[in-house]
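Hi R.,

Quick one: here's the Probable ribosomal RNA small subunit methyltransferase A sequence you asked about.
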Amino acid sequence: MGVLTVTTLKSLTLADPSVGVAEFGVRSNARDGAFTPAPVKLRPMRDPDALIARAGVRGDPDRDQHFLVDDRVLDRLPTYLEDIEADTGHLLEIGGGTGALTDRLLAVGDEVTVVERDPKLAAFLCEEFREEVESGRLTVIEGDALEVDLPEFTASVSNLPYGVSSEIAFRLFPEKRPLVLMFQQEFAERMVAEPGTSAYGRLSVSSQHYAAVELVESIPKEAFSPPPAVQSAVVRAEPRAPDYAVDDEAFFLRFVKALFTQRRKTIRNAIRNTAHISGLTEPEAVVEAADEEVLRKRAGAMAPAEFAALAQLALETSGLESNG
Ligand SMILES: C[S@@+](CC[C@H](N)C(=O)[O-])C[C@H]1O[C@@H](n2cnc3c(N)ncnc32)[C@H](O)[C@@H]1O
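And here's the predicted structure, written out as tokens:
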């Protein structure tokens, strides 16, 4: 019996996607060395520069348009979902651009929805992926990702528009789905930061409230056209319940926000000074009830579970403004 060697082609890039499909086959080392094409046929991935040329656009930084042009990065992004065995039944992409990432998502997902605000790009995506749109595998939503209704997606992989990346991330987090999102490097570092580090803050606590977050890759500016001003980074968020319980999630997040506005102050003074943000009607009662050890800390040294315990205590000892 001959030894079988699977012939794989990680990424075959052709300028024109209509040129053909790549055939993946199994080569038998039997004496005749015959090549038997495997039953599956995989198509090559679209070339990102050719997509930009076909779309007839130049990325406009004022509209958060920095298109990924590095095939290796594009090919890797969906693999961060594979690593955690995420369900790729329905992938959501925010900011489709000229479709280089959309193409990779169609290769791994059963169904893909892409949201794109720029009407010209949304129309191009419909044209470029006409077959997938007609077969129902791809839905293009033209509109602002902060406003449109999002579908029931199983995971998202997106190179986010940086101007609204925080707002979009916090629209996606509560959906509790695996996310692979590109941010500015510094923002990504703040999301994943640990207590006691300079990058740790409100963003770290609120991101980690929803998911286990991990900075999986830094991406140089040259991977984009046009290159952004700063380096980027990919964050993978795997949803999980936090290791603490909070009765009022909205209050917890508001309380954390309030305390970090006074990060140089002790927690004691931060509670007192930020009632207008937290909505606490009796901040002094919270100070009286809390442990001295906690009150002496500063927000940057508080673990998420400590904020949660303090928020619970605050709810038990103080009222909340009715609009808080
Ligand atoms: C950083 S580019 C990424 C494009 C493409 N996914 C890629 O990786 O090459 C961000 C895209 O989001 C679009 N965009 C900007 N603001 C948006 C918004 N509020 N909602 C939806 N799309 C937006 C831009 O037009 C642009 O195509």
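The two ends are 74 Å apart (CA to CA).

Cheers,
M.
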